[in-house]
Amino acid sequence: MAAETGTETESAHLRRALELAEGGRGRVSPNPLVGAVIVSPSGEVIGEGFHAELGDLHAERAALRDCRERGVDPTGATLFVTLEPCAHSGRQPPCSEALLEAGVARVVYASEDPTGKASGRGPGILRDGGVDVELARGPEASAARLLNQPFRKLARTGRPLVTYKAAMTLDGRVAAPGGDSRWISSAESRELVHRRRGECDAIAVGIGTVLADDPLLTARPERGEGRNPLRVVFDTRARLPLDSALIGSLEEAPVLVVCSGEAPTAARSALERAGAELLVAPGGDPASRLAAALDELGRRELGDLLLEGGPTLAGALFDAGEIDRMQLFVAPVLLGAEGARAVLEGKGAKRIAEGGRPLAVEHRSVGEDLLIDARLREW
Ligand SMILES: NC(=O)c1ccc[n+]([C@@H]2O[C@H](COP(=O)([O-])OP(=O)(O)OC[C@H]3O[C@@H](n4cnc5c(N)ncnc54)[C@H](OP(=O)(O)O)[C@@H]3O)[C@@H](O)[C@H]2O)c1
Question: pTM for this structure?
């Protein structure tokens, strides 16, 4: 019996490949998350794999290795994979080559690779080699694109995907009038944030948040390990205090201070001597400095940027059209105070009809909070 095509069975293989891809989360950046399933001509799953570590085997080769370990020959098999197979040599040799050598007859991939060196070359090489190649459509294709939004935005724009995460009260405030914000959200929400920190490439805050909260911004999940990302402070005048928790924890994670050329030399040198890295962002206005800083993070292949506030910096990024996703933890607390801080304090829209509308909004409970996940852009 031949493997079914374009059927529920085929969708199930792609869903399994998507599930496998998750195994690399937080460990493969700047590479994409990729999962693969190999199905024999009789419809049996004979190999599974995923890209597990940066520099390690790609999903396709991992699945072929699984076939070998099971003692099964993949000749004539179908490969279901979440991303188009690559044709270039990077940290690993090209997957298209391995698939041709293995005699795979058909490849179904769920999303294209937008990087310049890929862009359909792998599927082209496979077709030339006589392989039947198909790009899947439907919900699995959409899930495959969503799986790698940081990778896709970085490939298309050279800038990181920005996710703004904030904890807010039921009346939409992220801090009391005096600046106090600890703790708006529940312990369960904070645990989720610590895990998310361990998966992203960089965390950004404005100097206002550092001066108000003196945060550590390291990944400290109760369960599992946290890999610490780069901590980025937008600090035009290099005001970051030398006795701040950020500077005090440089052995745990690096700190990049984004300042302007007008920041006092003495302050810049003191921060550098303390071990922080200074990025003098070119441009006379905050918007161009913001753009220059995002470009620099992109050059460093930091694709997944978690923005942790505050409302001034988030407002500036929102106005610049750079916030791609918002994750808002809404806690059952009411402040009701004039002067309490809003989630976004940029220029924004002046009329409701001009307000931005997310592409999709999902929500779920986390402890006593409601987590609202809004996707503003898709790449
Ligand atoms: N509930 C939450 O989830 C949450 C999260 C974070 C913060 N907060 C609260 O928010 C409050 C702090 O917010 P905030 O708005 O005062 O501070 P912020 O947004 O963290 O920092 C704002 C500062 O960043 C600097 N900056 C550097 N480059 C910038 C640019 N391109 N655009 C805009 N700003 C830039 C500016 O100061 P310079 O010009 O001096 O550089 C600006 O004043 C605190 O009360 C904190 O507790 C709450």
Answer: 0.95
